[in-house]
Write a structure and sequence with these properties.
This protein is an all-alpha fold and 144 residues long. The chain has one domain. The chain is 74% helix and 0% strand. It has 6 helices and no strands. The protein starts with a helix and ends with a helix. The relative contact order is 0.16.
């Protein structure tokens, strides 16, 4: 079933998978990227860029959810384990912490907290994209 889905949707499927896996929903864009690279569906650089853009836009969606939530639920009133860890990283390193937005679980929460504390959007986009590009580039390099 996975093979059929990836073959049918190719790069568009990779984009959607990357987008969804970078929101608070679970996903596996790395597996889709690996499958497409191994099967020579497209040029690896193209696939890396598609995955990076999709994953970055998904992270920005999470950032925006945090941004919207911050007006109703100020950051001081939270008591969640992952949120607290992400908040410490954001408070300590600022936007640079978003280089780690590719990490499972904590990466999504980093983006949420970045929006929540209203970090500079342009800097946030840059660091999110750099982190995600590095991850997908490494995967592509290892498979090529």
């Amino acid at each position: 079933m996975f093979d059929e889905w990836v073959e049918a949707y190719g790069a568009l499927g990779l984009f959607v998978s990357a987008f969804v896996s970078s929101t608070l929903a679970p996903g596996g864009s790395e597996a889709v990227l690996a499958y497409l690279i191994i099967n020579d569906e497209h040029v690896p650089l193209f696939l890396v860029l598609v995955a990076t853009v999709g994953n970055t836009l998904g992270a920005l969606t999470t950032y925006y959810v945090g941004y919207l939530a911050s007006s109703k639920f100020p950051p001081k009133n939270t008591n969640l384990k992952h949120f607290d860890k992400a908040n410490v990283a954001i408070q300590r390193y600022g936007s640079i912490a978003l280089l780690m937005s590719w990490l499972p679980i904590i990466g999504d929460v980093l983006c949420l907290v970045a929006g929540w504390v209203r970090l500079n959007l342009i800097k946030s986009i840059c660091f999110i994209m750099l982190g995600k590009l590095a991850r997908y580039s490494l995967i592509s390099y290892m498979l090529s």
